[in-house]
Amino acid sequence: MELVLGLKYIAVALLIGFGAIGTAVGFGNMGGKFLEACARQPELAPSLQVKMFILAGLIDAVAMIGVGIAMVLLFVL
Known about the structure:
By secondary structure, this protein is mostly helical. It has helices at residues 2-40, 45-75. The chain is elongated. The two termini are 13 Å apart. This is ATP synthase subunit c. InterPro entries: ATP_synth_csu_bac/chlpt (IPR005953), ATP_synth_F0_csu (IPR000454), ATP_synth_F0_csu_DDCD_BS (IPR020537), ATP_synth_F0_csu_sf (IPR038662), ATPase_proteolipid_c-like_dom (IPR002379), F/V-ATP_Csub_sf (IPR035921).
């Protein structure tokens, strides 16, 4: 039984950790592409900024869903 609990804790840690790493990589790629696009066509910067913030919310939601699933694994199952 202790082995199962230990593996559950490792699974929760990996789920939260990989979710955070994926979110960080996503934000980095998105920010870099946004800056490249604004440097090429500065007149499109306001519309690109709105789209970037919408995508930032969606990318961040992936990490929050991962944390929610991890909490269910930790406290319910």
